[in-house]
Amino acid sequence: MEFELSKDFLERFQQALNERDSDFIRTVLEEVNPADITALLYEFNGEESKYVLDLLPVAVQSKIINDLDSDTRRSFLANYAATELTEIVNQLDSDDAADILNELPIKTSEEIIAGLEADLRSQVIDLLRYDENVAGGLMAKELIKARADWNVVQCVEEIRKQAESVTKFYTVYVVDDADKLLGKVSLQKLILTEPRTLVKDILDEDVVSVETYLEDRDVAEIMSKYDLESVPVVNVQGQLVGRITIDDVVDVITEQAEEDRQLMTGISEDVEEDDSVWRNTRARLPWLLIGILGGLISARFMGFFEAELAQVTAIAFFVPLIQATGGNVGIQTSSLVVQSLVNPGFVDEGLWKRLVKVFSVALLNGFFLGLIVLGVNRLVFGNNPLNLVVSLALFFVVVFASFVGTITPIILNRFGFNPALAAGPFITTTNDLLGLGVYFLTIHLLM
Amino acid sequence: MEFELSKDFLERFQQALNERDSDFIRTVLEEVNPADITALLYEFNGEESKYVLDLLPVAVQSKIINDLDSDTRRSFLANYAATELTEIVNQLDSDDAADILNELPIKTSEEIIAGLEADLRSQVIDLLRYDENVAGGLMAKELIKARADWNVVQCVEEIRKQAESVTKFYTVYVVDDADKLLGKVSLQKLILTEPRTLVKDILDEDVVSVETYLEDRDVAEIMSKYDLESVPVVNVQGQLVGRITIDDVVDVITEQAEEDRQLMTGISEDVEEDDSVWRNTRARLPWLLIGILGGLISARFMGFFEAELAQVTAIAFFVPLIQATGGNVGIQTSSLVVQSLVNPGFVDEGLWKRLVKVFSVALLNGFFLGLIVLGVNRLVFGNNPLNLVVSLALFFVVVFASFVGTITPIILNRFGFNPALAAGPFITTTNDLLGLGVYFLTIHLLM
After folding, report:
1. Final residue of a structural domain among A73, A107, A131
2. Contact, B87 vs B116, CB < 8 A?
């Protein structure tokens, strides 16, 4: 059952750790699910964690190490000798083994490969040539293959043979002499069919497969579109070479959401808070520089209106209001457009209808905001001709920013860029400049 | 195999639709996976889509309608009579049936429930009392239950009986007389075990279950933590009442990412671009008003420095630069903190170490940006005492905004709010004001 990390337990556990009380630790962790032990270890440092792991059976150790996120694992495994690692990697499925080997220094990884069991070694070597972000890099080699002319009993025999290496499976894949994928048989069907029945008579030929070079995002899309718990992977000759399970794809979906969010918040490299100071700095500078460039252009632009500003200083007071609103409206609009580009609606409205709607929303928002600001300014600054100018400019800024926020992600998407880019600092900076232009143009025309 | 939507095919299909050429449509769609037909229908309007669906077997119709996203489905199903809907819902699993019934007007849904087959009706009525966003609202009632004192043959018999209603399953759940969950047996084990073996001898008691009232986010977390393809749901008495499969949880993860993104981009309601103009307007106004409030406070604040501004108009030129940088730094920082709150690292660094690192990154970024701006200003505006003030203010703004961006999500998280809130307009507005304050304070002190 589930396991709760209580404060009392943690304190008791830390005490046992300090005293290196191996009996206590071993006993208390015996019944605990490896995934819970992983969560527990996040509370301790690398050295303590290794001490705990060394007390556990190697099968549990390997599960825990496999559960770690890859950055944490990379630094944690630096404490391990190649021989220890070989023992651990030998316990893993081929896809997980390849992932870990990819993270290790090349020398260590060669030493480990040399020590792997023969089957696993050849599987891992085959997997290592694929990029991490394609189907070949996600797949595991372990699967149950059957021939169309076998009967159910022969199929079950094959499952028995493979059962030790294939830990979790729900489908038997059927291939021809040349290993070409013909179809699949679910375990459910196998259980319910009379033993002498031939595989070809219960074969489901309508099987969705992916090719080794398909990008991980596309694999995730296909699996969630067809509601698959696993998908067979074929090479360009149509031969079955592996399978991808849904748990790997859940990780892809989570990472993708994270990546989009980083783009939107102006972080240009895949970086985490606990990466080095220098890496964190470098990941942020590019977008910050775009903002700075926008700010410098703003400064130069306002320079042209020095005369007006010197005459009516209050003009400057409303620059933040105009710019903030332009930025906020732009981000809101583009975020919704990005969302609808990812999940198109049942009835695609077409660009024209979409723009009409965006304009309607903008007109309403602009009207409300302009009115509110007019009221407040009247109360705070009294009856001033600038009030009307500010509210009018605000109205136009809302309308223009909505337009830019709509059109930018659509254009980026059409030219093959990730539209989420548009919801980030790029669009904010554009809208800042646009807002300033609209504001000073309104002043120029009306005052 | 997979199906490609070519432009030629679409044109040909549209033509067949215009001519109401039912033979062509039926023939061409016969071999196509329902999920691909769903994608195809997104190209046509509601009336055309219904015409196509009516030509297909009711099992395929129900799969397609089940695939639609809920907003699209709500409007699409308005074209259907209750009798048609009853036929379709009768084909669905209990969880999908309950989802659709929840979206329909209460009168229609009552009519449909009355027309359902007895088993499905009682299952659906049981499901309808749960909220959409708890385990009870995600689960399906269809599952295979076995008793511990049965043997493997009896188990297979039970599977045979249920196989018609349970479309996809990989695990048999074992319960006692009172329906209390005792453990599980995988299909894999069932296939490999000698038929006379008792269930209790192959039972895996180490089964993770969730309770009906657990929130969907937590269900997703548990399933991905323990790598489960399905999880049994128990009520407060520990009785087995349903099961949740991984495909439902993939939807939860996707929706959650979308929700966080909406919060971060200042959209306060769950809204899509194709919702009504009024709903779109209402979802955006609250955050825009916060921005406006910030802008008005900025205006009032700058009013206090009217004398300085009148004397040196150029002070106003750099307000956009200062504010944009503060906003960008704040969003970047909080986005990384939110990420690390969601995925804690192996070694939790603690608040203090975290702040030291944030400050280091901020000092580096602030130093670079200040230097660059100093250089550019020197070139563009010549040797002016304001240049140094601007760069110094910029440096402090970067440092303060990093601090606010770090501390806000941590505080929100500690008090149980979604920390993603902090990466949105709230933190931008705070940093806008902060930036302005720092800038004018620096001017006041140095000029």
Report:
1. A131
2. no
Per-residue pLDDT band at A32 (split at 50, 70, 90): confident
The per-residue DSSP string of B390-421 comes to: HHHHHHHHHHHHHHHHHHHHHHHHHTTS-GGG
The reported pTM is 0.77
ipTM score? 0.75
- Contact present, B165 and A136 (Cβ < 8 Å): no
Task: Tell me the CATH number at A169.
Answer: 3.10.580.10
- A428: which chain B residues are within 8 Å (Cβ-Cβ)? 324, 327-328
What is the Cα–Cα distance from A37 to A202, expressed in whole angstroms? Answer: 43
Domain count, chain B: 3
Residue B436 and residue B288 share a domain: yes
CATH number of the structural domain spanning residue B366: 1.10.357.20
Structure tokens at A389: 């100018």
What is the spatial distance between Cα B434 and Cα A32, in angstroms, rounded to a whole number?
Answer: 49
H helices of B239-347, where? 246-264, 277-303, 306-311, 314-317, 319-342
- pLDDT tens for A43-83 read 788 888 899 999 999 999 999 999 888 878 888 898 899 99
* A138: in domain: no
CB-based contact, B43 to chain A, within 8 Å: yes
Q: Strand pairing of A171-175 and A145-147?
A: parallel
Name the residue range of residue B364's domain.
Answer: 277-446
Nearest chain A CA: its distance from B60 CA (Å): 13
The residue among A131, A159, A181 that closes a domain is A131
My answer on whether A243 and A289 are in the same domain is: no
Confidence at residue B347, expressed as pLDDT on a 0 to 100 scale: 44
3-state secondary structure B192-223: HCCCCCEHHHHCECCCCCEECCCEHHHHHHHH
Torsions phi, psi for B271 (to 5 deg): -135, 150
- 3-class secondary structure, A161: helix
Sorted by sequence, the CB contacts under 8 Å of residue A272 that are 6+ apart come out as A71, B336, B339, B340, B345
Instruction: Read off the pLDDT of residues B5-53 as tens digits, 9 standing for 90 and up.
Output: 677 888 888 899 899 999 999 998 988 888 888 888 877 888 888 999 9
Task: Quickly tell me which residue has 């620059």 as its tokens.
Answer: A319
> Tokens standing for A110?
């060669």
Report the b/e string of A350-367 with b at 16+ CB within 10 A: eeeebbebbbbbbbbbbb
Dihedral over Cα of A425, A429, A435, A436: its sign? positive
Sheet holding A181-186, edge to edge: A145-147, A171-175, A181-186
Same domain, A228 and A117: no
Which site among B243, B280, B387, B398 would you substitute to test the A interface, given the most A Cβ atoms closer than 10 Å to its Cβ? B280
A362 min Cα distance to partner chain B (Å): 8
